[in-house]
Specification:
- This protein is an alpha+beta fold.
- The protein has a single domain, classed as Alpha-Beta Plaits (2-Layer Sandwich), CATH 3.30.70.
- The chain has a 4-stranded antiparallel beta sheet with strand order 2-3-1-4.
- Strand 2 and strand 3 form a beta hairpin.
């Protein structure tokens, strides 16, 4: 069953463009380096918060990605634009 990663975070208003500019490189790095990466969608929420919805083939793929952290420049640049983590959850795609 597909594993879904839900990460809610804050980005300072002056870093929002930086976050968006880093996104394509982050996704390319994930596609090249993260086994089981399926898709990611970024949602802009009110009050400088964002939600990243990332799909993984298995829970093991998601766990392995977490272990790697920001190990490529595009991923590191995206993470650097984030001010603070609000929540991080894992679930299974139900439909």
């Amino acid at each position: 069953m597909t594993t879904v990663e839900l990460v809610r975070f804050r980005v300072l208003p002056e870093k929002a463009e930086e976050l968006l500019a880093a996104r394509p490189d982050m996704l390319r790095d994930f596609e090249a380096d993260r086994s089981g990466f399926i898709n990611a969608r970024l949602v802009r929420l009110p009050n400088d918060e964002w939600l990243d919805i990332v799909e993984w083939a298995t829970p093991e793929d998601y766990a392995a990605s977490r272990e790697k952290g920001p190990n490529h420049p595009g991923i590191a640049r995206f993470f650097a634009a984030i001010d603070s983590l609000v929540t991080a959850e894992e679930g299974a795609l139900a439909g």
